[in-house]
Write a structure and sequence with these properties.
about 50% helix, alpha+beta, 22 helices, two-stranded antiparallel ribbon, 8-stranded mixed sheet, 14 strands
Length: about 500
């Protein structure tokens, strides 16, 4: 039996939600089918936690989503109000005859309509076969009890058909509606979702959940049944959250890190999760102390992947067209199916980190005074230009290299895993601040934005060139080095220098 208002807490509706729900109830009444409307899942959870939510999913007990959306438009038409376009995600007739979601915008809010569902899973597939279900059947098919709560719009009450969702929300517990192993084997993606929600809300796992996730058949099902795209979506959402370290630790505790962040088959390393987790934890602590504004959200996103995979930076494999490719590129692009841009950015940070570290000797001296020579300006400026807006992210990655936990993993089997040194956090921060101060003193903080004093056409005319080519590339590169070395000089002096240099070399 459903428990309603089990904790005595009520859902506080804002004015827009009240107006939307009143409209939906009027449409249901006009449709004449006695439809019960229930808000489902994340909206209910977030409202009970005192959070705002725009993710309104309406579960219907006796009609499909498109049918009810049409009823809403019929009601609007009868009132003389504007009707709204209905987008329909069609069901797969081979697998899910009753899996049809309709979406429409009402009073500025996107609303999804879908019927209550019961589901069963075919072997070796995470795609369920659907049929109309009861509220209980719909609740127990969901990933977690805290996501299986309903708000009955008709009655204005919270319904907890699993009998545990309200208590788990209050007690901050991550629990599956059914025994965890069954829930995970039905859809192994739920393992990753459990990890993500625990990290997001700082909850604890219910007894038996970790053990179920560690089971060999669950881990195998995660590897075999779940598409890499879906794994990537869950992982990327975790990495963009404000607690990715806990999630990655849980991947290691569940023995699924190497499944999620899979290296190419020809790489000999087999156990690398703990080292990567430690590397991320060190980087996270550093970033927390540097402050939220130190990196932009985009830079932070790439930085965290680069820090996580830093111990794997020397691992390579034979890629397409027999080209040697970085294993870290494979993890981002192929194992997680994330953007090529992200994979390239991670490789860029890894490849330039040691170069940046090599500059620390001149940018951070014992006397506290950086080397301000032209050679330092040129080397530092060119490096920053190669890195673009990611140069500060690379600076932190370079500073992390001093801790043993970030050392490249080379051996097939790893013995005792090193823990990062607590002192490393302070040392890394000091290095970053000292080096950045030197870069600012050199006037190179925005060197990556620096435009040539003379454009390509001007340089071609000065050098008597009819068309571009390698010689023009050499000239443009030489001009940029001259600009970095001589920030106080302008186009006229650059023109004179360029003419004299190429006259000598012709």
């Amino acid at each position: 039996m459903a428990r309603t208002n089990a904790t005595g807490r009520k859902v506080e509706l804002n004015e827009v939600e009240k107006e939307v729900f009143e409209l939906l109830l009027a449409a249901a009444k006009g449709d004449g089918k006695s439809t019960t409307l229930r808000c489902a899942g994340g909206w209910v959870r977030d409202k009970l936690m005192g959070k705002t939510s725009n993710d309104i999913d309406i579960a219907l007990d006796n009609v499909l989503g498109k049918e009810f959306a049409d009823a809403v438009n019929a009601h609007l038409q009868a009132k003389g109000d504007e009707q709204h376009h209905v987008a329909v995600i069609l069901s797969n007739p081979e697998q899910s005859k009753h899996l049809e979601t309709a979406r429409m915008k009402i009073l500025g809010e996107w609303i999804d309509f879908v019927n209550l569902r019961a589901e069963s899973y075919a072997e070796n597939s995470r795609i369920p076969t659907m049929k109309f279900g009861t509220p209980l059947e719909d609740a127990i098919r969901r990933d977690l009890t805290i996501n299986a709560l309903f708000y009955n719009i008709n009655q204005g009450i919270v319904e907890d058909f699993t009998g545990k969702g309200m208590d788990d929300l209050q007690n901050q517990t991550i629990r599956t509606p059914l025994p965890p192993k069954k829930t995970f084997l039905d859809d192994p993606l739920r393992v990753l979702r459990a990890v993500r929600y625990r990290a997001r809300f700082h909850f604890q796992y219910a007894d038996g959940l970790l053990e179920a996730a560690r089971e060999d058949d669950v881990r195998q099902a995660l590897s075999d049944k779940i598409s890499r795209e879906r794994i990537g979506v869950e992982v990327d959402t975790l990495m963009k959250s404000w607690n990715p370290v806990q999630g990655v630790k849980d991947f290691c505790d569940m023995n699924i890190f190497e499944i999620v962040f899979a290296v190419p088959g020809e790489c000999l390393i087999k156990r690398y999760g703990q080292r990567c987790s430690q590397s991320l934890e060190l980087a996270w602590e550093v970033l927390e102390k540097l402050g939220e504004e130190y990196l932009t959200p985009e830079e932070r996103h790439v930085f965290l992947y680069a820090a996580l995979l830093l111990p794997l930076r020397n691992q390579t494999h034979m890629g397409p067209k027999k080209k040697v490719k970085e294993a870290t590129y494979h993890i981002i692009r192929d194992s997680l199916k994330l953007r090529t841009k992200d994979a390239e950015a991670v490789v860029l940070l890894h490849n330039h980190a040691q170069k940046f570290k090599n500059l620390f000797a001149v940018l951070r001296t014992d006397a506290g005074v950086p080397d301000l020579s032209k050679s330092t300006r040129i080397g530092t400026g060119l490096l920053i230009r190669d890195l673009g807006h990611l140069w500060r992210a690379c600076l932190v990655i370079a500073a992390l290299l001093q801790d043993p936990v970030t050392c490249p993993i080379e051996k097939a089997d790893i013995g005792k895993e090193p823990l990062y040194k607590e002192s490393s956090v302070k040392e890394v921060i000091e290095v970053c601040k000292d080096v950045e101060s030197s870069i600012v003193a050199l006037g190179l903080r925005e060197a990556w934005k620096l435009k040539p004093l003379l454009d390509g056409k001007t340089v071609m005319r000065l050098l008597g060139m009819d068309k571009g080519g390698p010689r023009l590339g050499v000239a443009m590169a030489a001009q940029m080095e001259w600009q970095l070395a001589n920030p106080e000089k302008g186009a006229e002096e650059c023109t004179k220098w360029l003419e004299e240099m190429f006259a000598q070399n012709s």
